[in-house]
């Protein structure tokens, strides 16, 4: 309940006295429990997270003060209870030590504020009280003095400090993780936050892994007098994978069969990052499997045309890829075209494709001068309307979902083609994503794939259902 100051002359009623006593007893009851006992006691829908017992024990030690200056990187698979454990841990910590200052950091302010509401509700539900007049979703104070700060890596922490810092998944997604600038931005914010620890305070980086050089990886490389500065608590979704003794880390909730299906769905690169905590260096050959072929496409499908218009300093060709998707989620490369950099030839080529595939919309990721190119093509005499989507991060990251489908045999090419099929396959299998490489056909395929698969392109024109045009 909210705390309200009362005048000295005011005398509490019996009901108020009993209410305050009840709140104090309730708080003491929960505070006396261990964190493993507390979680199901206050949130009966959750079981005690015994699978995270190594993490819970050191967290309890840092909260109780038996561990000073704790530095931990906790790599836990996605969807394995780490965030719920952290939310309850903050509430439990404040019940035991209301003067504790904590700081919670996530990948953005919205996620951090969602976490703040959860922790605050748990704390108040356990008998804790927040200070009136100092209780916003981004920062709140308990009645007895401890200040709790919740922010994203794009937030401000100037003037803030903490006894306990929890950094929970500072990377938002794959594209962010594959961008060196975005990774470093997150790592720099993490380091700034750590510098604001109170003497004797502890920090926990609790995250699935995204990249060998993500913020967790950078902390794990830090040394002090030749010894690792951070203790690594590492949990894999499947332990002893591939051996007769393999088993699920959290079998009651994530059984082995479920995890193996997830592995097939997310692909090897994401599996080893997100679920095994062992990210692999990006492979220069992102499209690793041989191309799957088809004899014919189904009668009905979604269709889109992806473009890469190469009017750049590198002298790239321009390319278009016509891609279809059937109701089973199989993708078909219907046609691939390449043109040299003359805009007239490109315009004629795109119009010819539109005549052959009139139900298909045109999509392209754009940056820099490419925006002007699309504007030019919209004007007479061209009159070509292309949906330009801002190209965030790098092309390697954008190509990863497409490559996962290719490697699983779910993107297929025709057995015979009137266009240069060998050149297309060769470019896919040698794709590196580096600037200056010949990758226009791959970039065009990625634009078409994202339009059909629910990526950035898809929100512009929902649908594109059509019949095959002969």
Shape call: elongated
CATH class categorisation of the largest domain: Alpha Beta
Terminal CA distance: 71 Å
CATH fold title of the largest domain: Rossmann fold
The unreliable regions are: 1-12, 455-470
Work out the number of β strands: 20
Helix content: 25-40%
> Which structural category fits the helices and strands?
alpha/beta
Structure in words:
With 470 residues, the chain is an alpha/beta fold. It folds into two domains: 14-235, P-loop containing nucleotide triphosphate hydrolases (Rossmann fold, 3-Layer(aba) Sandwich), CATH 3.40.50.300; 292-467, Nucleotidyltransferase, domain 5. It has helices spanning 14-31, 35-42, 53-64, 82-96, 109-125, 174-177, 180-194, 215-220, 256-266, 268-275, 343-356, 370-378, 395-407, 421-429, 440-453; strands at residues 71-75, 102-106, 130-135, 139-142, 147-152, 162-168, 197-207, 223-224, 227-228, 231-234, 238-239, 247-248, 292-294, 300-308, 318-325, 331-339, 361-366, 387-390, 411-414, 465-467. The chain has an eight-stranded mixed beta sheet, sandwiched between helices. The protein is elongated. The chain starts with 13 loop residues before the first helix and ends with a strand. The relative contact order is 0.10. Residues 1-12 and 455-470 have low confidence and may be disordered.
């Amino acid at each position: 309940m909210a705390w309200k100051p009362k005048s000295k002359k005011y005398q509490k009623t019996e009901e108020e006295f009993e209410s305050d006593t009840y709140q104090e007893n309730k708080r003491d009851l929960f505070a006396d429990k261990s964190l493993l006992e507390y979680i199901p006691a206050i949130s009966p829908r959750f079981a005690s997270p015994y699978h995270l017992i190594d993490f819970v024990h050191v967290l309890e030690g840092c909260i109780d003060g038996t561990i000073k200056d704790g530095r931990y990187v906790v790599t836990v698979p996605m969807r394995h209870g780490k965030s719920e454990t952290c939310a309850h841990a903050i509430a439990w910590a404040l019940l035991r030590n209301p003067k504790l200052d904590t700081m919670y950091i996530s990948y953005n302010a919205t996620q951090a504020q969602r976490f703040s509401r959860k922790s605050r509700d748990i704390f108040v539900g356990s008998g804790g009280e927040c200070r009136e007049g100092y209780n916003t979703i981004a920062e709140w104070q308990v009645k007895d003095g401890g200040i709790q700060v919740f922010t994203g890596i794009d937030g401000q922490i100037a003037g803030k400090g903490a006894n306990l810092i929890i950094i929970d998944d500072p990377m938002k997604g794959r594209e962010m993780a594959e961008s060196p600038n975005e990774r470093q931005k997150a790592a720099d914010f993490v380091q700034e936050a750590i510098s604001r620890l109170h003497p004797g305070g502890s920090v926990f980086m609790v995250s699935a892994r995204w990249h060998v050089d993500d913020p967790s990886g950078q902390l794990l490389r830090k040394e002090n007098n030749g010894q690792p500065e951070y203790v690594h608590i590492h949990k894999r979704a499947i332990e002893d994978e591939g051996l007769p003794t393999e088993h699920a880390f959290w079998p009651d909730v994530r059984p082995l069969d479920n995890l193996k299906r997830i592995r097939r769905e997310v692909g090897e690169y994401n599996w080893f990052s997100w679920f095994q905590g062992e990210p692999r260096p990006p492979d220069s050959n992102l499209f690793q499997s041989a191309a799957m072929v088809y004899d014919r496409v189904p009668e009905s499908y979604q269709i889109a045309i992806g473009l890469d218009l190469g009017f750049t300093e590198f002298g790239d060709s321009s390319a278009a890829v016509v891609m279809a998707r059937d109701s089973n989620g199989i993708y078909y490369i219907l046609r691939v075209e390449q043109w040299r950099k003359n805009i007239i030839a490109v315009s004629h080529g795109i119009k010819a494709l539109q005549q052959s595939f009139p139900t298909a919309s045109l999509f392209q990721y754009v940056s820099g001068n490419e925006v002007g190119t699309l504007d030019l093509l919209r004007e007479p005499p061209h009159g070509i309307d292309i949906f330009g989507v801002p190209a965030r991060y790098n092309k390697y990251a954008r190509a990863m979902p497409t490559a996962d489908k290719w490697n699983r045999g779910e993107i297929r090419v025709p057995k015979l083609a009137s266009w240069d099929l060998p050149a297309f396959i060769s470019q896919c299998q040698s794709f590196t994503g580096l600037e200056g490489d010949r990758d226009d056909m791959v970039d065009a395929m990625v634009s078409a794939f994202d339009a059909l698969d629910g990526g950035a392109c898809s929100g512009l024109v929902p649908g594109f259902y059509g019949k095959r045009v002969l």
